[in-house]
Amino acid sequence: MRMPRPEIVWLQGITCNGNSHSFLNSPRFETVLEEFRLLHHPLLPSEFTLEEIVAQTRDVDVLIVEGALRQEGFERSGTEIYETVRRYAERAGHIVAAGNCAAFGGLFRQSDPQSIGGVVFRGDEPEGALKRFEHKTVNLPGCPIHPEWLLYVLRMIREGRPITIDELLRPVELYAYTVHEGCLRNEYFEWKVDAESFGRKEGCLFYGQGCQGPYTHGSCNRLLWNEVSSKTRAGMPCIGCTEPDFPSHGLFETQTLMSIPARLPLDVPKRAYLTLTGMAKAFSIPRLQRRKIDDA
Amino acid sequence: MMHERLIERIEGEATLLLEKGRGGEIHFAEIIFPHFRGMEKILERKPALDALALTPRVCGICGHAHLMATVAALESCYENAGIPLEISPKARAIRSMTLALEIVQNHFKWFYLTLLPAVPGYEYRRDSAVLTAHRAASTCAKAIASLAGQWPHTSYALPGGVMCDPTHLELLQVDALLHDMEKIFRTTLLDLEPEEAAELSGVGALYELSGDLPELLRHVRKMGWESLGRSYDRFIVLSRHPLGHAGKSVRTRYSRIDTAHIEEGEFSDVGARRNYARPVRYRGSFFETGPLARAMVAKTPIVRDMHRRYKDGFVTRVTARIQEVGRLLAEIRKRVKSIDLGEPSWIEPRKPLSDIDAVYGRGTVEAARGSLMHTVHLRRGKILRYCIVTPTQWNLANGTQEEPGVAQNALVGLPDEALAEMVFKSFDVCSVCTTQ
Predict the structure, then answer these.
(1) Angle CA B7–B11–B17, to nearest 5
(2) Nearest to B17 by CA among B267, B270, B392
(3) Who's near B309: CB < 8 A, 6+ residues apart?
(4) H/E element holding B31?
(5) Contact B152/A21, CB-based, under 8 Å?
(6) What does the pLDDT look like over B338-377, one tens digit per residue?
(7) Measured between alpha carbons, how far is residue B30 from residues B13, B136, B217, B400, B402 in Å?
(8) Which residue of B has its CA nearest to A201?
(9) What are B192-206's pLDDT values in tens digits?
(10) Eight-state DSSP code of residue A68
(11) In chain A, what residues touch B164 (CB-CB under 8 Å)?
(12) Predicted TM-score of the model (pTM)
């Protein structure tokens, strides 16, 4: 059953605000403001200031949490943000952990891995400070979130449709894909043609430049960023920003073991990978060895 | 009489501790930035290039500037190690374009989401302000993404150039979006063609124009608030940028700078509370950084004229920021038209950073709010130490009773708290940057 105008409170833990700014780019932004009642947002003028939100207690339809949490040592408006988030989490109909930090702890967890985590998870373990709210939490990892991911969740909630989630609480309709799916360089991946260099549209970035697309859950090359592009389409390797271990170590080079990438495409057995690679490397496809557009 | 005021919507928050006189006027202010995330420590022991991905995450609105500062710092390492890098004009142009676009979207958001709501009693249409900020931000972000893949948070630039390899398709897309941005600028902030904006020199003429900026200025004039928020009238610009050069200006007197004279202080305690904004001084003194500083150093005519009347007061600071928008759009457009796609995007450095034993590098860029400086110490390609100094530190950190910080100084003598918040926000504060 459709909700008339769900009420949203958006709270921030330890964050850079990137998810808020990403959300502001959504082409459906105007519709969101019409379809939802924004009780509080940290950047947008809203019905209540943070001071007022902290001072009151109320039910909300959707609590959006951006940023990582720690039980003490990070206050907003004079109160531990953990306390404010907890109070609203108790009374919220739904909780959305927007961004990698809220989902898993993210980058800022590296400052104090024992104390800092996401809403439900710390890394990939369900040991977050508010894990008891797992039953009503949806994780939208990403650094930052793609605004359409958040819109998807909000509108599914509004329509009263259940959101199918995986074991990390990620909506499968968004995260069942890999970033690899839809990348413009797929053909170079298929025929094992290395990029060998940054700054060129030819070649696959998986073999040397550290691209994590083939084993990163996300729909970046399906939905496209800012409606036009994606990191890999622009020649930048995927850095795995939706995964619990983001950011990993050594993002712009591929770790190899005996010349084989240490991390293989998602769920592809090593033997299958080696067999296919061996066969592909036995051939040299002239078109794929050339530049797409010859310099005049 | 001490009073506390929480300031929100400044990419985080800050608390003003105001010492007020009997009539409510501000005698002194302490500014507390309460958050610390430890980015500099997180960066230690990481491979140098990881900083390209991590430093943008200091800030969601100006992360692109951090990327460029990291690139500049790493390129400085190569230079200091005696390994000259070659960066094509094409790569430099693309970098400066995406950086300028981030500045443009920032200024729109600041004006419509942060400043207007803070002007006491000012009537404006809130819904259309929010939508203007959204339209400008998403259009700029789309233009950045056409070259850099996405916005926020891309790391498409690296020592030696950029990772993208655009065709005319991307350039035409960017040009079309710039055309949209110029229309948005003219129909919202200031009804002036970008070329005319560059030639605007008279305050009188500015006040007669239509647009949300002149309308605000007329209101401020009516209220008699034009000169509020004056501070030291001392400005610093650490890096060259599309609209001018580096240097400092004491009132209107220009001189060169050397970053070796910059000193960053420590966290301070205000009573029982820790303030995480570390003060920054040049040769022992506080300097203002940001669009006003850039315009004073470049001697931009409209800002000079405003400065003649109102010194470094509220209207000068606000005007300086908005006039950058039109002119930056024109500059970006020029660059789009002059890029030679035949040039290489990236020229690989002769050696990887891991081949260099121990080296130090410093990079400066002009970000939306002012000068950003990254300093890095590397050993064999791993980060030993990383130091980030942000524009908000320059402007908003506390000094002492004898020598207050730039914004602290600007708050002294203001008639009430509401005007204090307005003047505070005229500095365009970024709480997350300040407290990395």
Answers:
(1) 25
(2) B270
(3) B203, B226
(4) strand B26-32
(5) yes
(6) 999 999 999 999 999 999 999 999 999 999 999 999 999 9
(7) 14, 34, 28, 9, 13
(8) B165
(9) 887 787 788 899 999
(10) B
(11) 199, 234-236
(12) 0.97
